[in-house]
Every structure is written in C-alpha cells, then in structure tokens.
Write a structure and sequence with these properties.
The complex is a heterodimer.
Chain A lengths: L4 E7 L2 E7 L5 H8 L18 E4 L2 E4 L5 H4 L3 E3 L13 H8 L9 H13 L6 H7 L10 H20 L1
Helix pairs in contact in A: 3-6, 4-6
Chain B lengths: L4 E4 L3 H8 L4 E4 L5 H6 L7 E4 L9 E3 L3 E5 L4 H5 L2 H6 L1 H8 L4 H6 L2 H5 L53 H7 L3 E5 L3 E5 H4 L18 E8 L2 H4 L1 E6 L10 E9 L6 E9 L6 E2 L1 H7 L6 H8 L13 H19 L3
Parallel strand pairs in B: 1-3, 2-3
Antiparallel strand pairs in B: 4-5, 5-8, 6-7, 6-8, 9-10, 10-11, 11-12
Helix pairs in contact in B: 5-8, 11-12, 12-13
The chains are: A alpha+beta, B alpha+beta.
Chain lengths: 163, 330
C-alpha cells in the first residue's frame, strides 16, 4: 500500500490539513479531499484549462501540480473569488452579464484565467485577450462572449483602479 | 501513475546528492514530467522537487550577455523588459509557446528538456514499440500517421520532432547551457541536443545526476534585430508545424547583410541551425528574392515519411518570411 503523508494546504485563506498519497495532484486534493468541487477536471493533462487556479497569485494548472508542491503556497480557487458577503467578483459578474458560457463546465477555469489575464496586463485588445486566454478551451464555443466579458471586466477594473 | 517518494531539495548540492540514487527525477514545473507519469511513459520511483532551490530564477541582461537561471518561469522571461529589448526572438519564442498557465509553471531548464509530442511515444498502452521509450522495440511512427514528425535529422530508429521553441532561439544565437554535477560544465546549445541515430533514448548530453542551472546568451546586433516566427495548425496554444528563430545585422548601407543567424523548429529531431544558409546570405543584399533563394537550402537532406511532405515545402517559406520580418521588408 502506498504511504500517505500529512500535507497542509492554504486554500482561499483557510487551512486544510490533509493526509495524501504523494501522487495526489492539487486538483484531486481540492476536489476529493478539501471538498472544493468548483475547480473542474477536464483533460487532466494540462491541455484544457478547466482546472486553472491561482497559486501565490499566478494562474496555474492544478492537474499538473502535485499537492505536495503547493504546500505552504497561497491557493485561490473559484470559491474564493467572490467577497465574503457574496458580492461577485467583477469578472464573475461580467461572465453572467455577457452570457459567456453555455454548459458552464469550463467556466471556473475561464474566470480564474481571465482574472489573471487582466491582472497581468494582457487584456489590452481582443487579439491579446484571445492569445492570453487560449489555454482555456470551451467545447460549447462561447468564445465571442468570453472575449466580450473579459474586455468589459478589464475596462471596469481599470476604472476602479483610476477612481 | 506508479508510486513514488516525494522529496524537496533546498540546495543544489542536496538535490545532486538525491539524484545519485537510481530512479530519481527532478521535478520543476511538472508540465512534462507529471503529464508523462500519468501516461505511464515516465515512472520515477523518487521525485525531487527543485522548485524552491534559492537563487536559480534570476534574469540578468548585461552589456555583453544575457543570463537566465534554470528556474526562471517562461512567463517571466517572456515579459522581461531587458529580454524584449535585447533579444526579441527569445521573448517571442516563449510567449508563443504553450498557454499562459503552463508558462507560469514551466521553467527554462525544464523547457529545454521537454519530451517530444510524438503520439506513439506518448501512448505506451496502444503502441509498445517505441525506440525512444524501449530501445530496440521499433518505431510505430515510421509506418503510422506521421504528419507532425520530423523531416530533418531523422534515423531509421526515430522520427520524433523536438517540440520546443526557446531552444530553437538558443541554438540560433549560440547560447550555452550551464549544468552542474560533480563539476560545472558549459555546453553549447547546438551540441547539447543529440540526433536520434541508433540511440533515440538519449536526447541530450546531460549526464545522469547533472542538473541545468542556467543558460547564457551572448548579445549581438543580430540578436537585437531578431524574430521568432511560428507557423501552426491554429493561431495560438499549439506546437509548431514549422518555426524559425532569425536575426539580421546590416552594414552601414542599411541593405547589405553583415551577420545573420537562423535555426528552425518543428521540422527536425533537434533544434536545427542553418549555418550553410547563413553563409550563403552574408554579404548579400537584403531583398525577398535573395532571401527566398537562400532559404531553399533550409531543407537540404530533408526526407518525407508519407504524411509530412508539406513540411519540406513549408520550412523554407517560414525561414524566408522570418528573415523578411526581421529585416523590415515585410
């Protein structure tokens, strides 16, 4: 039997003390052990972006990250994006307003990726949004609305900063 | 995925000590290794996480050279103002590779070592025959669907393409790879990567127990005026069908080529430097006809395997186009 090791993860500001097989990915740790199922498993091979989360403020793929690698890092998932009183993040609100999804399965990854895309300063034009969001695949093909939502959220966040 | 022990190294010396044990692999960004472990292509028994080794993620641009630590993330190098200014082809080779998420994970050292995307190599369940995975077992790609396989540098044992972009720029601009084992070695990027020949399981000259600690690139006028063109089946997030890292330095007359550097990706078993084409272009006038004529030599010795003939037609066009872009005539 494989051994399990104690691993402590900090997710959305809360500490999770888990006992995990070293093979456990961050994605499986979140979904199966921390009961945070907002992060989705698509391809499980780093090709679709559904599992995108933030580690120390940067978007990464949780399916190609071992949970052990994320220990001691600051992890943020889709569940941690809205404020404590339930007010949605600007990007979440923009996705609803622009109808930027159909089935919704890729949406948590799209939104986590979009938040980073804007924060990195890579949402300056539709072409740049398409380039820097290309790691998130949408099988329903909601891309035009996703681009519109990211563009809108970027301009709203810019206004917030300049206010 | 097979069971393995996870260890975290806090110094290069301790990482090297751990690597001395058989079955050990270093884990950096994990974007290749963990993927291939899930596919049962890689099966280390010990994984040493090197992502927290101190001091290996720095990027320095001095008057004469660029030095990039092995643990610098692809995204950080791509967005580095000094790299964009002194070495645009390197920035482009990085931001046109993978996706934003993968670039935030993948390191420069790991990027150099990424394994081929050959579909037969990646599928041991369906294709037990792969000389790269199991030496002597044969090559399923030779008689298979080989549209994405190499036309240059192939052998009767392996036709898998080297998949990376950054290494293509590194080979074009005479970069060095700095590795540390019992001693420190500096290896020219061009000789770091090996042709498959009869031993496709050996992809580079890194020795067991050695670790890449960084790369260095001499600055030059050609590098300053450089470009990375990547042509592929979709506009973004795709491996190259054919790519070219090029740089041009012109004489004071603004139209005679003084220096030129060219390497291709996506078409060969290793990053493919075009020294003969470079020699043919030095001293010539920068115009489309001259560039296209010289670029025809890019596929000298190329060989199709059934589905990849298009690469032989595509590669010279990509080289010529990249040179025209760098030269400012397109």
């Amino acid at each position: 039997m494989p051994s399990v090791y104690p691993i402590s993860l900090s997710v959305n500001g809360a500490r999770h003390d888990l006992k995990l097989d070293p093979r456990t990915t961050l994605l499986d740790a979140l979904r199966e052990h921390a009961s945070l199922t907002g992060t989705k498993k698509g391809c499980d091979h780093g090709q679709c972006g559904a599992c995108t989360v933030h580690v120390d403020g940067e978007r990464i793929l949780s399916c190609l990250t071992l949970a052990a690698q994320a220990s001691g890092r600051r992890i943020q998932t889709i569940e941690g994006l809205a404020s404590a009183d339930g007010v949605l993040h600007v990007v979440q609100a923009a996705f609803i307003e622009h109808d930027a999804f159909q089935c919704g399965y890729c949406t948590p990854g799209q939104i986590m990726s979009a938040v980073s895309c804007i924060r990195e300063g890579h949402a300056g034009s539709d072409d740049e949004i398409r380039e820097y969001m290309s790691g998130n695949i949408c099988r329903c093909g909601a891309y035009p609305h996703i681009v519109a939502a990211v563009r809108d959220a970027a301009s709203r966040l810019k206004k917030e900063v300049s206010l | 995925m097979n069971h393995f022990d996870y260890l975290r190294a806090d110094a290069v010396e301790s990482a090297l000590a751990e690597a001395a044990q058989p079955g050990t692999r270093f884990l950096a960004g994990g974007t290749t290794l963990i993927d291939l472990m899930k596919l049962n292509v890689e099966h280390p028994t010990r994984v040493v996480d090197i992502t927290r080794l101190p001091g290996l993620d720095t990027i320095t641009v001095s008057a004469t050279r660029i030095r990039i630590g092995a643990l610098a993330k692809m995204s950080k190098v791509a967005d580095h103002a000094g790299i964009k200014e002194a070495a645009p082809a390197f920035s482009e080779s990085l931001w046109r590779a993978a996706s934003a998420q993968l670039r935030n994970m993948a390191t420069i050292g790991g990027n150099l070592l990424q394994r081929t995307r050959c579909t037969y190599f990646r599928d041991p369940g369906a294709y037990p025959n792969c000389n790269k995975r199991t030496p002597g077992s044969g090559c399923a790609a030779l008689e298979g669907i080989n549209r994405n396989h190499a036309v240059l540098g192939t052998s009767a044992h392996c036709i898998a393409v080297y998949p990376g972009d950054f290494a293509v720029a590194l080979v074009a601009f005479d970069g060095n790879i700095i590795v540390r084992g019992q001693t420190e070695r500096i290896i020219a990027a061009d000789s770091f990567f090996l042709l498959p020949g009869g031993t496709p399981q050996r992809e580079n000259s890194l020795l067991p127990g050695e670790i890449i600690v960084g790369v260095e690139i001499p600055r030059s006028a050609a590098l300053q005026r450089s470009h990375y063109l990547k042509v592929r089946d979709r506009a973004s997030y795709e491996f190259a069908a054919a790519s070219a890292a090029v740089g041009i330095e012109l004489e004071a007359d603004g139209r005679t080529i003084r220096d030129v550097r060219i390497a291709m990706g996506g078409v060969a078993t290793k990053p493919w430097r075009l020294r003969t084409v470079e020699t043919a272009l030095r001293g010539k006038t920068l115009d489309e006809a001259t560039l296209r004529l010289a670029a025809a030599g890019a596929v000298s010795g190329a060989r199709s395997h059934g589905h990849n003939t298009f690469k032989i037609a595509l590669a010279p066009k990509v080289v010529a186009r990249a040179l025209m872009k760098a030269g400012g005539i397109v």
